[in-house]
Design goal:
heterodimer, A: two-stranded antiparallel ribbon, B: alpha/beta, disordered C terminus
């Protein structure tokens, strides 16, 4: 089997396995998995910017929230149907990423982290400031009537799981195609050696902005889907922890791998879930796990596997 | 016919240092033009101005008659000015194939695999395509850098001290490789190894303290008393 065939088999296999999982898993875990799949889309988007292009952003909560409010506000205020609202969420995520990118990409490294962090904080405060329109820190519930797509009630368990899986599958295969494409190679080139890439004729700003916009569309899609599937839109999703979480998912699963963000999201989700049933200091467990990760597998789960022989992993 | 590159009045100072001062320069189609001069003469700064890595302070650069002074470095690469780095600059964690593919796809090569194979074949690295570039020997990394330059199919290939650190046998191979590039590709060569310069160059420009000291054929440069004084160390060094 060629490397390409192996990687397609692996990724399609994961989608089939996730489809089958809903018939075996207890409802509690199926709902968790739906949540994980949506968060994994967020993390995959983060990975496109960070893992592949080398853009360490601390502002992705802004893009996630842009997608969530871009979807939620039209439903709440304008009574839009779910599908156009969802698309509006994607557009909002990508548009906000473009606007932030145009300014933030004038900086690199630590400055880029700080500038993106500041933009995200400004976005969070903006949501609070316009509480008449945004619901402020209380947020708002997305009506069941607003959560219907093509006769599917996304508030019900099975359609919700299938919708999450559908989004996840499209996002993952899209990511796979992207990173195996010539442009994917250029993204990695930008991460590895920007000056050399410039002297091969690539415009670093244009490449990084494109990657950031794609990343923002992923984050926006995830934010919109999260609000739609779980029925709540709130300012807490614009807080700094939603910028840190995708970074942790990606580091845990393996930066610059297609499935890594999913594995990282699942591992982190259950780590918190299990730890919090024993102790209220569950962040201590998370911290210990991250220290162990940095010490023993700095490239994350899949990054380590790739170094240990699975070189074909995309 | 206009020269392939024509620079006039190029100037670049760094603080009080006049790295490049009012340099006029012509690169003719199909020549191998060597740029020599003592350390700190401004050779790398000068080619950085040509390639756009450093913006010019004043002066004008024409590529085949078109003014490219205001173009960014990456736009100049697209127009056919390729630069290979003095200090090897490859993607050490990517495969040799990917390194060259990045160059080939930059100009939109449709048959990427063939183009990469051709460029690697030309420098003798065909068997190393799947290897991680960082694990190549130093000499092979220099050749990979050259293959990336070739895969760009440039009109002008600027080589910044390409033989630095190469073994004697590798230098011979390199010389015949560069000689085979002209006249399709015009070569601008910064080089300290005088044997390489005298064997390869059709013309030589000597820079000293950021200014052009002399331009001419290797024979003319050899005879030039100013050059001997400034660069070869004067008559005393002859022996």
């Amino acid at each position: 089997m060629t490397d390409g065939a192996k990687s397609w088999a692996l990724h399609l296999g994961l989608i089939v396995a996730l489809f089958a999982a809903q018939f075996f898993l207890p409802q509690y875990h199926a709902t968790n998995l739906a949540r994980i799949m949506v968060l994994a889309v967020f993390a995959m988007g983060y990975n496109i910017a960070f893992g592949y292009t080398g853009l360490l952003s601390l502002g992705h909560a802004l893009f996630f929230a842009a997608g969530m409010y871009g979807m939620g506000l039209p439903i709440w205020q304008l009574e839009w149907p779910a599908l156009p609202a969802l698309i509006m969420g994607l557009v909002a995520g990508g548009g906000v990423a473009a606007a932030v990118g145009v300014l933030a990409l004038r900086t690199t490294g630590v400055s880029f982290m700080i500038v993106t962090l500041m933009f995200a904080q400004a976005g969070y405060l903006t949501i609070l400031y316009f509480n008449t329109y945004s619901g402020g820190d209380e947020g708002f519930v997305v009506d069941r009537a607003g959560r219907m797509i093509g006769g599917m009630d996304l508030a019900a368990d099975t359609p919700r799981y299938l919708a999450a899986l559908g989004l996840f599958a499209v996002a993952m295969l899209g990511c796979l195609v992207l990173v195996r494409s010539p442009f994917g190679r250029v993204m990695v080139a930008m991460r590895e050696n920007e000056e050399r890439s410039r002297m091969l004729g690539y415009n670093p700003f244009a490449v990084k902005l494109t990657a950031l916009v794609v990343s923002g569309i992923y984050a926006g899609a995830a934010g919109a889907a999260y609000g739609l599937l779980f029925g709540y839109v709130g300012a807490s999703f614009a807080q700094i922890q939603y910028s840190i979480l995708p970074l942790l998912y990606v580091l845990l699963g393996g930066a610059g791998t297609v499935i890594g963000p999913f594995l990282g999201a699942a591992a982190m989700f259950y780590l918190i879930d299990i730890a919090s049933s024993y102790t209220s200091a569950y962040f201590f467990v998370v911290g210990a796990a991250l220290v162990a990760l940095v010490v023993f597998a700095p490239k994350g789960m899949l990054g380590t596997l790739r170094d240990r022989g699975l070189k074909w992993l995309p | 016919m206009a020269a392939l590159i024509e620079a006039s009045g190029l100037t670049r100072h760094f603080g009080g240092v006049r790295a490049v001062e009012n340099v006029d320069f012509r690169l003719e189609h199909g020549e191998i033009h060597a740029l020599i001069g003592p350390n700190g003469a401004g050779k790398t700064t000068f080619v950085s101005l040509l390639s756009g890595r450093i913006p010019v302070q004043s002066g004008r650069i024409l590529l085949a008659g078109d003014d490219i002074t205001a173009l960014s470095a990456h736009a100049r690469v697209r127009k056919g000015i390729a630069y290979t780095f003095q200090i090897t600059s490859i993607y050490p964690r990517l495969s040799v194939f990917d390194n060259v593919a990045l160059a080939a796809q930059s100009r939109g090569a449709p048959d990427l695999k063939d183009q990469v194979a051709a460029a690697l074949g030309r420098v003798g690295l065909k068997d190393h395509a799947a290897q991680t570039a960082g694990t190549l020997s130093y000499g092979h990394q220099r050749l990979l850098e050259l293959a990336m330059g070739l895969a760009l199919r440039p009109r002008v290939l600027i080589l910044d001290e390409p033989t630095q650190g190469l073994a004697a046998g590798e230098i011979e191979g390199f010389k015949s490789l560069v000689a085979s590039l002209v006249p399709d590709t015009t070569v601008l060569l910064i080089e300290h190894n005088m044997d390489v310069v005298m064997d390869l160059a059709t013309r030589i420009t000597v820079l000293n303290f950021g200014q052009v000291l002399a331009t001419g054929t290797p024979e003319e440069i050899r005879q030039n008393s100013h050059v001997q004084a400034a660069y070869l160390g004067g008559g005393d060094a002859e022996g």
